[in-house]
Design a protein that fits this description.
single chain, alpha+beta, Phosphorylase Kinase, domain 1, Aminoglycoside 3'-phosphotransferase, Chain: A, domain 2, 2 domains, 5-stranded antiparallel β-sheet, 3-stranded antiparallel β-sheet, 10 helices, about 40% helix
């Protein structure tokens, strides 16, 4: 997805970065265009390394509040699971937030084998998809078994709280503030939206232990080869929160295979209320970020607007049956 915040690196940028990291030269590069905010390049070096270079938006780029410390979050989460050996994640080879070589944070990681699941999903049988999604459920549960001390964004201590309901309210208010900053029209006023969220806060009180949530584990961030998951990427939006925030519990990705692998499905009334709130929170972000990032694909703008309207209607309806 092309946007106006993705940094474009030139050959000399990559040469300097690779030389500093490995003392070698760049032999071949290929831009990976699937990312929506960061730039990524597959690089082969003169000492036969195959690596991925990922660069954050240039310093000073206007971002949404929840996006503070995104790249450091990804690096720290990848290192956490690489050190534990519990998940198939790429090893982080170097991370630089000094802005000395380029005017952006960047890191280099090893290149995974396989392809993103979304690239091949439609070519697979239902049995093959069920097997992959079962495995994804198992890995998601392993991620969520990591416990934190506070609720909130992974590294944003100012967002942390002992209460999940309070932390989630702060997250909603931050996104609403982003919409005001950018002049984005929402389906209702801030006061009405906050009031509707408050109507369901009692359901959030069931969540009493902060758990690590990937929160962006959609099919494009799952690498697959020969019917098996070979890697999980893009931990940059990690949260200490409710495991039900994971993408595959959402309205777009309900999967019997995933639920079986994880050992949980959205079943109770309060679980359904929580999940509708989480869907709406993501719906807000997907619409508001269109203005921040100025996506070239206007079809996506239309989809995001309509998706938010649908999410708002779901929030209004839940609990009123």
């Amino acid at each position: 997805m092309e946007s106006n915040i993705k940094p474009k690196l030139i050959d000399s940028d990559m040469e300097r970065i690779i030389h500093q990291a490995f003392g070698s030269r760049v032999v071949e590069t290929k831009e990976l265009t699937d990312g929506w905010a960061n730039s990524a390049y597959a690089i082969i070096t003169s000492d036969d390394r195959e690596v991925i270079l990922k660069a954050a938006p240039f310093k000073g780029t206007k971002m949404m509040r929840y996006e503070a410390s995104l790249m450091r979050t990804e690096v720290e989460a990848l290192r956490l699971f690489d050190n534990s050996g519990t998940l198939p994640v790429p090893k982080v080879l170097t991370y630089d937030d000094t802005y000395t070589l380029i005017n952006a944070e960047y890191f280099i990681m090893e290149r995974l084998s396989g392809v993103p699941y979304n690239k091949i999903k439609e070519t697979l049988s239902q049995e093959e998809k069920d097997a992959i999604e079962f495995e994804l459920g198992v890995y998601s549960r392993l991620i969520n078994e990591v416990q934190g001390e506070k609720f909130g964004y992974f590294l944003q201590q100012e967002s942390w709280s002992d209460s999940w309901a309070e932390a989630f309210q702060r997250m909603i208010r931050g996104v609403l503030a982003d919409s005001r900053d950018a002049g984005v029209e929402l389906p209702a006023g801030d006061t009405v939206i906050e009031s509707e969220i408050e109507r369901h806060l009692d359901a959030l009180h069931e969540v009493d232990q902060p758990r690590l949530v990937h929160w962006d584990l959609w099919d494009g961030n799952v690498f697959v080869e020969h019917g098996k998951i070979t890697g999980l990427i893009d931990f940059e939006r990690a949260i200490w929160g409710d495991p039900l925030m994971e993408v595959y519990f959402g309205r777009f990705n309900r999967s019997v295979g995933f639920s079986r692998g994880y050992g949980l499905a959205v079943a109770t009334q309060n679980q359904q209320r929580r999940r509708v709130m989480y869907d709406f929170y993501l719906d807000l972000i997907l619409w508001i970020e269109c203005t921040f990032r100025q996506y070239e694909n206007k079809d996506h703008w239309n989809w995001a607007r309509n998706n938010l309207a649908e999410g708002w209607e779901c929030l209004l309806a839940i609990g009123r049956d």
